[in-house]
Task: structure prediction
Amino acid sequence: MKKYFALLTIVFLGINYGCNNSVKEQNTEVSATQPLITVEEPEHQHSESDSIELNNGAKWKVVPKMMIYIRNMESDMNRFAETKHTQLNDFTQLGLNLQKNIDLLTSSCTMEGKTHNELHKWLLPYIELVDGLNKSKSIDEASQTFQKIKSSYKTFNIYFE
Result:
């Protein structure tokens, strides 16, 4: 629901924020007399278009500047997996480190076209997982989310280089 509220807020503010980190003002007016719109979050569904595709049987090439941040996050995950963690704070710190790299990755996005679209099919669920790790309330919940994030790198490495 937060994503839809944030999107609604952006629409009301008349700002369009793109992946290339550019901000464009739009001439959007909202009347104080207009009723607030309640947006129900649709049930999360996957379609064939949500599935990552190979590039004619080959992996998609991620631009090197962006790949640095992806590999940094993967390295953080691998180092974290090598040791036992008994504190929720350990997972939270990992999540904060991953989020920093996500921010750097998305702010450096220069990709376009089909490669960009396919990367987003991996990246958007990954961002949700990291957000879930940061919001974990127990070690068990954080550990399960950690495993899902770790698994997402297996998917990434199948489709991207």
About this structure: The radius of gyration is 18 Å. The CA atoms of residues 133 and 145 lie 6 Å apart. The chain is about 60% helix and 5% strand.
